[in-house]
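Sequence in, structure out.
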Amino acid sequence: MFKITEVPFRLKIEQDILALGTETRLKISFTRGGRLFSLEPEGSVGGLPDFYEHAISFLRKKNGFSPSVITFDPHPLFCCFSQAQEFKNIFFKNARLAPVFHHLAHVARFGLEKGSRTKFIGVAFDGTGYGVD
């Protein structure tokens, strides 16, 4: 039902993190045991809210996943904004919510792949953005 792919990266991450994805792709990322993964559906799962619910259920039941941090885009019209709070309230009561603006997430992904000792300037231009974007 889902395809989980390990994503190579060079930073040490000690917390289990759930990162809810964009409005345009059925994809989430998560860290577990210091490793980074992406999760995508293999087949049809409906729209974004359905995908999120199925993916979270899959991670909880099949993998015992319980993040200490849930990241999401704080744009109030994005599905991940409301879903993050709902998942925290229903499934992950002890998780901390950590808003991450869309364009900062793009740049952070590059940093994860290159490692903490790499100096870079990140610029992301792929839409109108929101907030500090």
